[in-house]
Write a structure and sequence with these properties.
By secondary structure, this protein is mainly beta. The protein contains no helices and ten strands. Strand 4 and strand 5 form a beta hairpin. It comes from Pelagibius litoralis.
Length: about 120
């Protein structure tokens, strides 16, 4: 994690879990965030729905749309606008047990690079 405006780097170490529900998956992530002098617990959650085979729509838990996801070719790029901030994401499948997500976030008060590696627990 890199905050280019504050010239700080950090990391989030945690665990994410997918849980099956009627028409999709619920995802919950909890971890410890260290960024500059800040250290604290963090949580994020999303809903994955599958309107057609091989393609997901990702929503925040309040129902707002976040982005589409299609990893049929092993890579997917997407965009999301959140207030004044633009999020550009790249998802890359690294095999059956790992994937990488890179988000570039730009806005009046943000210039972030979020590079995440997810691995299935053995």
């Amino acid at each position: 994690m890199e905050d280019r405006l504050r010239n700080e780097t950090g990391e989030l170490l945690g665990e994410g879990r997918f849980v099956a529900r009627d028409q999709g998956l619920d995802y919950n992530e909890e971890g410890m965030l260290t960024l500059g002098a800040h250290r604290g617990a963090t949580h994020q959650a999303y809903r994955y729905d599958f309107p057609v085979p091989g393609r997901a729509t990702v929503h925040f838990t309040d129902g707002r749309f976040f982005h589409d996801l299609n990893l049929a070719d092993g890579i997917w790029t997407c965009k999301h606008r959140c207030g004044e901030d633009d999020y550009g994401g790249e998802f890359r499948a690294l095999g059956a047990n790992a994937w990488r997500v890179v988000w570039c976030v730009k806005g009046p008060r943000k210039d972030l690079l979020l590079d995440s590696l997810y691995r299935r627990r053995a």
